[in-house]
Amino acid sequence: MSLRKSWLFILPVLTAFALAQSGFFAGFRNGLPPVTPQTPGEKFAATFGEAMKAQGNWMAAFNAAQTDAERARLFDDRRQLEATSKSLVELATSLGDRSPLAVESLVWVMTHLPESEIGREAAALLLRDFGTSPLLQPICTRLAESRSELAVETLRKLTETTTIPAVLGSAELALGELLKVKAEQSGWSHPQQAQAWSAEAESLFAKSMTNSPETTSQSRNQTGFDASPRDQAEANLREIQTRRVGKPAPEIEGPNLRGETMRLSDHRGRVVVVSFWGNWCSLCVSMLPHDRELVERMKGRPFTFLGVNSDNDPSIVLKKVEEGSITWNSWSDGGETRGGEIAEQWNVKSLPCDYIIDAKGIIRHKVGPRPDEHDTVYIKDADGKIVNRWKSRAEEISTVVEALVREAEAEAASSASL
User: Fold this and answer.
1) CA–CA gap between residue 355 and residue 119 (Å, rounded)
2) CA distances from 83 to 11, 50, 127, 146, 375 (A)
3) Is the dihedral of CA 152, 126, 174, 56 positive or negative?
4) Are the beta carbons of 174 and 205 closer than 8 angstroms?
5) Comparing C-alpha atoms, which of 134, 363, 349, 324 is closest to residue 243?
6) pLDDT value of residue 34
7) Which is nearest to 407 in space by CA: 250, 306, 271?
8) At how many degrees (to 10) do helices 79-95 and 40-64 cross?
9) Secondary structure class of 254 (helix, strand, coil)
10) Taking Cα atoms as reference points, which of 112, 108, 142, 141 lies closest to residue 125?
11) What is the mean pLDDT of residues 71-88?
12) pLDDT (tens digit per residue) in 345-399
C-alpha cells in the first residue's frame, strides 16, 4: 500500500478550492442551482469531475469483467476517459503557464493514460509550459508513482532542462526511485540491466541530496512518509548501497509478536522470505492465503518465511496465528503510522514488500507493490498479458524461492558427497 497515494487527498482539496474561488457554492447558499461553469476554477472542477467519473466507470466495468478477453478489451478501450482527458489538456492550454490547475490537469492525464497519444501530448505540454517552473517540484513524486515509461522519459528530460535546484533535486529523486523499482523488478530475469539501472539510481540519489534544499520540517514518521526530498534521497541512497539485490542481507534482530528475540542470521543456510506486512493493509491480507500455501508446500526443505509486522497491537495478529491463518513467525515492528525501526532501516515505505534471501545470506530478489495494485484486481504483466495481480505476485515469489531452494539443496548434496 502506497504511503504517498496523494491523489486521494489532493484532488478533493484542489476541487473544493477551485469551486470556492469561483463562487460555485454561492448559488446553493442563495437557494439557486449552480450555473454553467464559466470561470477557470469552475471549468477545472467540472472537467475533473467528469474525468473522475469516467475513471470510476471504467474501473467498475473492469473489475466486473468475467473473462480475460473482456479485460483486455477494456485495457485498450478507454474512449470515455480519453475524451475527458482531452478536455483536461484543452483546459490546461487555456489556463496558461502560470496556473497550478493546468499542472494538475496535465499530470492527471499523464498518470492515468501514460501509454496513449493524449498522455504523451500532456507530457509534452508540461515540459514546454512548465519546464522551468517551481510548480513542478511537488508533482515529481506523483509521476514516479505511476511507474510508467512516460514518467521515466518526462523526469529524465526534466533533469536535463530545469534550472531550479529544488525542482532538479525532486526530479532526480523521483527518477532514481523509478529506476530503483525497475531494477528490483528485473533483477531476477535481467540482472545486467538491473545492475545498470541501480547504478544510475544511486548516482541520481547522490545528486538529489546535493540539489535538494535543506530539511525544513521533521519527518512525520520513521519510514520516510512526508520526509523532505533530501531525507528521502539519503534513505534511498543508503538502501541501494546496502540492501539492493546482490548485497548481503543485514542482520534483523528484535522481538517477535510474543516479545521473544528473533534474528535473521539464525536462518543462515536456508532460503528466507522476509515479508513486510500489516493487518491494516488490505493488500497484505489478500496475500496471506498465498503465503500460507508457500509455507506448507516448502515444509521439509531449507526454507523459512518470516514476517515484519507493522501493527501497533500485536494481539490482533496473534489471534490470526492462533486461528491458523498465519503459520510463520513475525517481528513486531509497529511504529507511529506504518512501521518501526526495521522498516526504517530497510527503507520500506509501501506494503506488501518481500525480500528473498538465498542460503548464503545474499538478497536475490525483491517484490514490492506493483503499479495499479491499488485500483484493480487484474494488471498487465511485462508481456502485456492480463493477469490476476495476487496470483502473479505469488507465482513470482514461488518461482524465485523454488529456484533458490533447489540451489541450496544441490549445494548441500555436493558438500555431503565430499
Assistant:
1) 34
2) 19, 10, 22, 20, 21
3) negative
4) no
5) 363
6) 52
7) 271
8) 160
9) strand
10) 108
11) 82
12) 999 988 899 999 999 999 999 998 765 444 555 556 656 666 665 568 889 999 9
**Helix residue ranges, H only, 23-116:** 26-29, 40-64, 68-76, 79-95, 100-112
Q: SS3 for 407?
A: helix
- pLDDT tens digits for 187-233? 888 889 999 999 999 999 999 999 987 754 443 333 344 678 899 99
Q: At what angle do helices 229-242 and 165-186 cross, to 10 degrees?
A: 30
Dihedral sign (CA 236, 290, 316, 299): negative
As given in the structure block, the three cell numbers for residue 173 are 529523486
**68 Cβ neighbours under 8 A, 6+ residues apart:** 386
How many angstroms separate the CA atoms of 400 and 243, rounded?
Answer: 18
pLDDT number for residue 6:
45
Residue 357 φ then ψ, to 5°: -115, 135
**Residue with cell string 511504529:** 335
CA distance 351 to 298: 24
Q: Are 47 and 84 in contact (CB under 8 A)?
A: yes
Amino acid at 112: H
Q: Is the peptide bond before 352 cis (omega within 30 degrees of 0)?
A: yes
Query: Do the beta carbons of residue 174 and residue 155 sit within 8 Å?
Result: yes
Q: Report d(CA 365, CA 392) in Å as an integer.
A: 15
Q: In what order do the strands lie in the sheet with 329-332?
A: 329-332, 303-309, 271-277, 353-357, 363-367
Contacts of 100 by beta carbon, 8 Å cutoff, 6+ apart: 14, 135
Distance between CA atoms of residues 306 and 251, nearest Å = 13
Please answer whether residues 183 and 198 qualify as being in contact, where contact means their C-beta atoms are separated by less than 8 angstroms. Answer: yes
Q: Which of 123-132, 287-296, 379-388 has the lowest mean pLDDT?
A: 379-388
Mean pLDDT on 407-411: 95
Which residues have a Cβ under 8 Å from the Cβ of 297 and sit 6 or more positions away? 398
When mean pLDDT is compared across 54-58, 99-103, 364-368, the lowest value belongs to 54-58
Number of Cβ atoms within 10 Å of the Cβ of 319: 12
